Amino acid sequence: MSDSVATPQGIRGMIVTGVTGLNLILGLAALLATTIGWSSIGAWCLLACVMLDFADGALARHWKVCSDFGAQLDSLADMTSFCIASSVLTFYWFSPEAPLPWIIAASALYVLSGAIRLARFNTGIKLEDEFKGMPTTAVAALVALTYLTFPQLNCWWGIALVVLLSFLMVSVFPYPKFCRMMRYPASFWGILAVGAMIDLSWTIWLSAVAYIASGPLRWLRFKLRARSAARKNPDRARCPDLVGPTFGGCP
Length: 251
Fold this sequence. Notes:
The protein is mostly helical and about 250 residues long. Helix content is about 75%, strand content about 0%. It has a domain at about 5-175: Four Helix Bundle (Hemerythrin (Met), subunit A) (Up-down Bundle), CATH 1.20.120. It has helices spanning about 5, 10-35, 40-65, 70-95, 100-125, 135-150, 155-170, 180, 185-200, 200-230, and strands spanning about 130, 175.
């Protein structure tokens, strides 16, 4: 074992890499479980991948062991789990009822959009509290939770959901990061907890709808504010539509 690996930082880096690797392995397990008819197990594996994705990022930042290698491995794990495996889940979920060309096209669009979303994240400017476009982690979590909650969902509604999520992944709509959501008031989480105890299915769906809608609504707010500012100050009319504290203003 080299000296660099034997150091506390080296060991911590190995732990983070192990968590990321487990994400990838469980993503493969989700894919295989789905293909042999164990779709529920596949969905639970995807949710475990979501937790692992949060964990490796949080540990890497806390231990200050972020690296280009870790970022690339994390992206490959995300592609496996949140793009390919979750797309396979949607395919096997709706293929018994949906016309084959439609479900193939929807699944292909889902994978392609997820890949574009990850590539854009890797090469773009990182925002502190928000994502540009709906993150693949949230999309996969939504797909898995929807399957576990409404396994008999109508195939056309399912295809529409897949297409919508594909569009949101490659959109420019701003979505809050989990660390930002953790700073929401305790009353917000209390309402969710009470709702979950009353009716878990509807609480999940309403929360998902609220999260999906938050991106376009915040984008619209920024756009309206930018136009209002441009009318008050014509010199700033050359600024992009998306102007605000998140997207940056004119130079």
